[in-house]
Design a protein that fits this description.
By secondary structure, the chain is of the alpha/beta class. About 40% of the residues lie in helices and about 20% in strands. The protein is built from 8 helices and 7 strands. The chain has helices at about 5-15, 20-30, 40-55, 70-75, 90-100, 115-120, 140-150, 180-195, and strands at about 60, 80-85, 110-115, 125-130, 150-160, 200-205, 210-215. It is globular.
């Protein structure tokens, strides 16, 4: 059920999406019974459009899961491009590598296993695009570091910023999300809106996607 966008509109958008491939479709089907926190195909298509539009060559992703969003992103890279993606869970990271291989993207993807708070300090920029989809409680703590890793006019894209509408107090009569995570996302949205180095718009697609461009004078 769509909390932000009505189901009929989501179905319409899904039927228009021709950007996927057999590997992406296979991962999505397999996840129907697993329920892993993967982006929707419409979000994946937008990620690929954004990466293509800015001619991205270096992309950083926080939260690999099994590589679904990474395939959308890496599919926009040139042969000498690179996606660095951070994943806490070693088993998921292994599966992601296998999925990248199935998609023919092993040569332009690197999966780093470990705590994003620690690993991010060892990552070198600049990046053209950063996709933040990890632990929601780390959204704000990681923000300034991610902005520092982004090139001027680069994009910081963040998933789940509307959190089934629960960032709006009273939107859902019976909230289902973790209250600490809801507060963390609401705080992050406020920081994005006020950040002096970013210009941000939020797209109410699926669970909400923020798109922030780093100001050229940064």
């Amino acid at each position: 059920m769509g909390y932000i966008v009505p189901d009929a509109i989501e179905s319409y958008l899904a039927n228009l999406n021709r950007g996927g491939d057999a590997v992406l479709a296979s991962i999505a089907r397999g996840n129907e019974s697993r329920g892993l926190p993967l982006v929707d195909a419409e979000v994946g298509a937008l990620l690929r459009v954004l990466a293509t539009a800015i001619d991205a060559r270096r992309i950083l992703e926080i939260g690999t899961a099994v590589g679904y969003s990474g395939i959308w992103l890496a599919g926009a890279l040139p042969p000498d491009g690179m996606l660095i993606t951070l994943e806490m869970d070693e088993a998921r990271a292994k599966e992601a590598r296998e999925n990248f291989a199935r998609a023919g993207l092993s040569d332009r993807t690197s999966v780093v296993v470990g705590d994003a708070k620690l690993k991010i300090a060892k990552v070198s920029g600049p990046f053209d695009l950063i996709f933040q989809d990890g632990d929601k409680r780390l959204y704000s703590p990681l923000l300034d570091r991610l902005v520092g890793l982004l090139r001027p006019r680069g994009l910081l894209v963040t998933d789940n910023v509307l959190w089934n509408g629960e960032v709006v107090p009273g939107f859902n009569a019976h909230p289902m999300q973790n209250a600490d995570e809801t507060r963390a996302i609401a705080e992050y949205n406020e920081r994005l809106a006020a950040h002096p180095q970013l210009q941000t718009a939020i797209v109410p697609l699926r669970d909400g996607l923020s798109i922030s461009v780093k100001r050229p004078e940064s």
